[in-house]
Structure prediction request, 198 residues.
Amino acid sequence: MAAGLLLVLSGPSGVGKTTIAHEMLRRFGGHFSVSATTRAPTNDEKNGVDYSFVTPEVFQQMIDQKLFIEFAQVFGRSWYGTPRQPVDAALARGELAVLDIDVQGAELVRDKYSDMLGIFILPPSEESLLARLRLRGREDEASIQRRFCESTIEMQRARENGIYNAFVINDDLAAAIEEVACLVGAKLKAHVGERANL
Prediction:
């Protein structure tokens, strides 16, 4: 068993996952896994902070060298992957490692890290999710509708696949953060107890 705790956060775009992830790191310390992707950055994204933006050729080299915990082509477009080395290093140090990934990726991670803590962040309703996507102002209406459709499919898959330990509704961000923090704190405490009994 890894010394640290692997926290996998999933949820539809615009639901607050990244904000919650960074608040967990602020409270508990640890490592935030920066995914590699072949898609182009948006205007407000920083390479190496939000994602590691790489060419399809570099991404394929990383696959060939088995450098990913999981990787997938998302909705037939760009590729995304979770680099293995930084996560395993954080866990070996006994730290919290946080992954902000989709359901498909979380399923693959669960296969390799059976004691991960999986939390799925839900919007209060599908209508509120659609409103949040529009408020972000990043995409045209056709793209928003496509992303909304993809999100509803992903939420259904998350409910049915059995890999998430908890579902947290982000109706109020502060309350959602507290709920996730309680789950993480309890799991970290249990990990410490398990290590003490080894």
